[in-house]
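Example record

The entry below shows one chain as it appears in the dataset: sequence first, then structure tokens.
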Amino acid sequence: MSIQDVKNYLPHRYPFLLIDRVLELEIGKSIVALKNVTFNEPQFTGHFPEQPIMPGVMIVEALAQATGILAFKSEAGKPIDGQIYMLVGIDKVRFKRMVEPGDQLRLEVEVITIKRGIWKFKCKATVDNQIITSAELMCTQRTAG
């Protein structure tokens, strides 16, 4: 999926759209997406000016956005239909290494379970095949607005 396609499945826009491309997607099972980290992103003006580091919460948000695309594609819906996937839980988060401008985050998400409208995902973010962040995320569909 190109960035134009990604924008059809996420309501986020600059500066908070954190998925640049989807490389793989298996409906109801998994997604692999990319986030290209650039020095021009606004968080780097304050985190930290002398040694810019992508905040861990932004990495988790990028993973959460990947879960949203997977869920929307799996349910054949889009935000334009008046629905949104909301992050409702974060478990087992680990940060292994810093992410700096110039890095390319590979975001890998697998569905663990879907129970009573709650999706649970196993997620990891890597740079150059090294695990940066791992987590279990949960999201659910809500009416936007």
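Notes for this example: DSSP finds two helices and six strands in the chain. The beta strands are 21-26, 30-36, 83-95, 104-115, 118-127, 130-143.
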